[in-house]
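Backbone-to-sequence.
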């Protein structure tokens, strides 16, 4: 759990520093920062999406996952959690700047959708090697600072999501390592890349997307690979 704990700490520190920094920035500068982060997310999403060896698997995962997410109302639940946290922190002026729910949801998705989250957590749990998560921790710390400067303290609380998601993966690493093959991880990564592109579209306010409803696609992608292997084998 060392890597996850360090990652949680860097998001906390980065989010707090970014919030402090953002208070001194004009709306124009914060908007520029948000646009810059959106472009970086686009680049990362495209890089991840190109990991696929069969785009139809990604298409099927996004479609089926999106339907399941809508039926489970995942976006509504995540928004409700963000709003509840926002209401709690609204009593403290220091924590109330920006759209708390947007910052919390956006940062939670960005920090937990990428391949480093899965691979790093499994590696940490199996061998105690947290090197991959240490690299992710540094990247997430700077990203949290940039996000928080534009969106406020909600980004800082995404550290809770990092702790829960990565902690769960680390604790269940022996199970996940036996299930996930290289092909499954590639398609899962590519599917996560498409979700990352959706995050960028949402951040740029080009279209309001219920992004959390696509999260089941991350489970559907390796499942489709597994079923395809049975059919072909």
């Amino acid at each position: 759990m060392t890597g996850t704990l360090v990652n949680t700490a860097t998001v906390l520190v980065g989010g707090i520093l970014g919030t402090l920094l953002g208070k001194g920035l004009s709306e124009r500068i914060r908007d520029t920062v948000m646009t810059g982060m959106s472009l970086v997310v686009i680049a990362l999403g495209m890089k991840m999406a190109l990991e696929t060896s069969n785009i139809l698997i990604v298409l099927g995962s996004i479609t089926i996952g999106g339907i399941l997410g809508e039926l489970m109302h995942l976006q509504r639940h995540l928004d409700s959690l963000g709003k509840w946290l926002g209401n709690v922190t609204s009593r403290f002026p220091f924590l109330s700047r920006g759209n708390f729910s947007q910052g919390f949801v956006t940062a939670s998705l960005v920090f937990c959708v990428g391949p480093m989250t899965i691979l790093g957590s499994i590696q940490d749990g199996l061998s105690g090697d947290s090197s991959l998560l240490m690299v992710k921790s540094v990247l997430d710390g700077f990203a949290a600072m940039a996000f928080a400067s534009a969106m406020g303290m909600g980004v800082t609380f995404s550290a809770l999501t990092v702790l829960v998601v990565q902690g769960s993966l680390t604790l269940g690493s022996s199970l996940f390592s036996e299930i996930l093959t290289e092909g499954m991880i590639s398609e899962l990564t590519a599917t996560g890349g498409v979700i990352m592109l959706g995050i960028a579209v949402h951040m740029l306010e080009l279209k309001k997307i219920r992004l959390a409803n696509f999260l089941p696609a991350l489970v559907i992608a390796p499942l489709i690979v597994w079923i395809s292997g049975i059919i072909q084998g």
